[in-house]
Sequence to fold (215 residues):
Amino acid sequence: MLRLEFPDDLLTGHAEVDRQHRMLFDAADRVLAVKQATRDTVVPALRFLLSYVHYHFGAEEALMDAIAYDRAEHHKRQHKMLREAAEAVKEAALAGEDLARVAARLHVLFLDGYVFHIRHVDAPLAAAARDRGLEGADALPPSGVLVQAGRLGPEHEGVDAPVTTGTPDVGIDLPAVTTGTPDVGIDPPAVSRVPDDGVELPVVADASKDSWIKH
Ligand SMILES: [Fe+2]
Ligand SMILES: [Fe+2]
Fold:
């Protein structure tokens, strides 16, 4: 089974940014961790993940605007691409794509696109926020504030609420996090990225392509 674990070397040093990144990885891992995966169990987990992606990106963009961040345009462009790539995975699941392939696409998207983004695009934003003294939990506004400001669709309000139980209400079991190798018979491509400030993310290709990441 494919799994995702947040690697410690992705920490930016900004507590709230790092907490939300862990949440993103946890939400993606929940999709992969669904036991006896069916569309009825995978799709709700994907919907939550997408909601959290929309929220987290909206919160970072509010932070960028608040500090007049000079790399905001490039950062927001990358958010748009990553959002669309994640939406494409969800749509593929809804359209009936084989669930093992859906899981593999999500795994690749996180190990490649999201890891790259956090390491090379979010880290400078986190440093800029710290330089401006915005280090606390209020550096990234809650979903309700973003909805009121028109930055987030009302359907996503509350997605950042603390999880009160260890198990989502979508019938998903949450096994202990493991670091085992994928065993669904699909090997994601090796992740290899050269840090390059300002570089664009690769386009995540259509499900029908053999390679999901175009270079
Ligand atoms: Fe970001
Ligand atoms: Fe981020």
